[in-house]
Amino acid sequence: MQIDKLRGKQLDQLFEAILSLENIEECYRFFDDIATMSEIQSISQRLQVAKMLTEGKTYSAIENETKASTATISRVRRCLNYGSDGYMMVLDRIKEKE
């Protein structure tokens, strides 16, 4: 995993903080303080791109709907194909709740 290079106490603390959030409103409050609007938009955009790719949408449809660049779409595709299965784990859990 790429993130293993960052593994340590500081990153563990961030993940523990995220896991401590109890609802969407708390997420809004925490992420408003910890990240820029651009960072939050980029992360949410990547998740939407991953969802659309798993639904079989074309690059042009994804680009039109999300405004993501083809480079971002390609990067997310690589993660879906060769990554740590984080996107699929989260997308599967979201689908189960629906």
Automatic annotation (TrEMBL):
The molecule here is called TrpR-like protein YerC/YecD
This chain's source organism reads: Oceanobacillus profundus
Residue span of the signal peptide, if any? none
Q: Name the Gene Ontology molecular function terms of this record.
A: DNA-binding transcription factor activity; sequence-specific DNA binding
| UniProt cross-references to Pfam families, sorted A to Z | Trp_repressor
List, alphabetically, the InterPro entries matched.
Trp_repress, Trp_repressor/repl_initiator, TrpR-like_sf, YecD_YerC
